Amino acid sequence: MGKGTRNRLNRTAAKQGASERDMKRVVMREINQELSRATDRFFRDETAVILWVLHETFGFGKDRLKKFYVNYEKVNNNLKEHYAMSDSDMKYLADRMLKDIGVDLDEWSETIS
């Protein structure tokens, strides 16, 4: 095999490697976008349950529910931005802050079961 043939093969292999990297990048971007959409849907569903519990259990009306919702969104977004966190990191931080005031959600969950 001549030098020219080896160079062509190397260039072809390099292009395929770049192509695979590009494909992986595209796939990862799609996965991250879908994960983001799923997280947004989960957050919205979770928020709806929280609002319903506040209404049914504590009598929150539309105005108080909206006030809670707006503040909940602000705190959530501010913490994410401040700490540049993922949603799992956000859960850890929220759990940690609650434990600092004596609220242990894991312990509370055990009492329900």
Secondary-structure map:
Layout: H1 3-58, H2 62-83, H3 87-100, H4 105-112
Task: Name the descriptors.
113 residues; mainly alpha; 2 domains; 4 helices; 88% helix; 0% strand
Structural summary, described in words:
- The structure is a single chain.
- Helix 1 (3-58) runs antiparallel to helix 2.
- The chain has helices spanning 3-58, 62-83, 87-100, 105-112.
- The protein has 113 residues and is an all-alpha fold.
- The chain has 2 domains: 1-59; 61-113.
- The chain is built from 4 helices and no strands.
- It is 88% helix and 0% strand.
The percent range for strand residues is: under 5%
CA distance, first residue to last residue: 72 Å
Give the count of helical stretches.
Answer: 4
Which structural class fits the helix and strand makeup?
mainly alpha
Number of strands: 0
- SSE ordering: HHHH
Low-confidence stretches: none
Q: Whole-number average pLDDT?
A: 81
Radius of gyration: 24 Å
* Count of discrete domains: 2
User: What does the overall shape look like?
Assistant: elongated
Q: How can the largest sheet be summarized?
A: none
Which percent range fits the helix content?
A: over 70%
